[in-house]
Amino acid sequence: MQETEILSTLPSVSPKPAERPSREERLQVFDACHIGVVLRAVLFVEVVLGVGVMFQSASPMDWLTRLALVTGGALPSTLGWLLCICALKSQLQQLPTFAQYLLGTLLGFVAGLSTCKLLIWVLADNSDWPLVASGFAGALMALALVAALHLRARGSTPAATTARLTELQARIRPHFLFNTLNSAVALVREEPAKAEAMLEDLSDLFRHALAEQGNSSTLEEEITLAQRYLDIEQVRFGDRMRVQWQLDAAANLAQLPPLLLQPLVENAVKHGIEPSARGGKLRITTELRGGRVVLQITNTLPETGEGQAHATRGHGIALANVRERLRLLHDVDCDFSAGMQNGLYRVRIALPASHANPP
């Protein structure tokens, strides 16, 4: 029988030679291919431009006009800088950190010059333009963006991400194990045969929950775990709980934080099925739409005296935990929403079909 190691002694510490940064870690310094980086870079440049044009604006309308004009020249240059950094990332990773900063700053200088040249061409103005000043302004903004990318990479290295995910998963595990064990204990005296089958499923759940896990698991693994949990709850609720699965096999390889789906399913059972005397329905669907996977968990709600569906109010801990772990793994590439819709409670997650590494 394979036992899960719960308590262990500290491993012996042996001196290791200093290792050079891995390919992935150095590459992340210039991870400009990520949509979150692009949005933040454009917003940063726009804020700097907005403050800069204030010095020559006579009124709010004049400021808006000048900002729109300058943005028309700066936005293509900013996107061009990001595109160059993204295209050159395999070459940049071979360079030392200082050279990476220097190249990023020089590209920013060129972007500043191109912004000024573009405005001269659009306005057909042959008067003196501050070309050198525009170049240095672009270089300083590029240097700030490179520094931000560097700090972002340090904050999302595998060690930092794993530590944060471990902390969040640690909050889920005791709650998860207690509730599943409580479901099994409820049947031990009344229906021993069902309790035995339930405890077998519970053993598999415990083994999975206590095992050491990486930064992510696949949607297929999360669905298997949720199915085992619902098998346990099905024994407890019987015909009161009706579960419908609508799964798209093409979506199975999408990356999710470990133990993410089960708390959502548990919430649906706790707030939708358990409080209702007549029970309710639970529906889990997955679908691949283009390059994104959409996961939805929908459950009915207990009715009030007037026959209207009413959502019981919880603490929101599970939903906040899920949202935070999705943000760590996918940043702005993931959409998460939860709330009432057409008399049902729906949780919807849309994420990239494949995402090998955290941002």
TrEMBL record:
<dbReference type="InterPro" id="IPR050640">
    <property type="entry name" value="Bact_2-comp_sensor_kinase"/>
</dbReference>
<keyword id="KW-0472">Membrane</keyword>
<feature type="compositionally biased region" description="Polar residues">
    <location>
        <begin position="1"/>
        <end position="12"/>
    </location>
</feature>
<feature type="transmembrane region" description="Helical">
    <location>
        <begin position="100"/>
        <end position="123"/>
    </location>
</feature>
<dbReference type="GO" id="GO:0016020">
    <property type="term" value="C:membrane"/>
</dbReference>
<keyword id="KW-0808">Transferase</keyword>
<feature type="domain" description="Signal transduction histidine kinase internal region">
    <location>
        <begin position="163"/>
        <end position="241"/>
    </location>
</feature>
<dbReference type="InterPro" id="IPR036890">
    <property type="entry name" value="HATPase_C_sf"/>
</dbReference>
<feature type="region of interest" description="Disordered">
    <location>
        <begin position="1"/>
        <end position="20"/>
    </location>
</feature>
<dbReference type="InterPro" id="IPR010559">
    <property type="entry name" value="Sig_transdc_His_kin_internal"/>
</dbReference>
<keyword id="KW-0812">Transmembrane</keyword>
<feature type="transmembrane region" description="Helical">
    <location>
        <begin position="129"/>
        <end position="149"/>
    </location>
</feature>
<dbReference type="Pfam" id="PF06580">
    <property type="entry name" value="His_kinase"/>
</dbReference>
<dbReference type="GO" id="GO:0000155">
    <property type="term" value="F:phosphorelay sensor kinase activity"/>
</dbReference>
<keyword id="KW-0418">Kinase</keyword>
<keyword id="KW-1133">Transmembrane helix</keyword>
<protein>
    <submittedName>
        <fullName>Histidine kinase</fullName>
    </submittedName>
</protein>
<feature type="transmembrane region" description="Helical">
    <location>
        <begin position="67"/>
        <end position="88"/>
    </location>
</feature>
<feature type="transmembrane region" description="Helical">
    <location>
        <begin position="29"/>
        <end position="55"/>
    </location>
</feature>
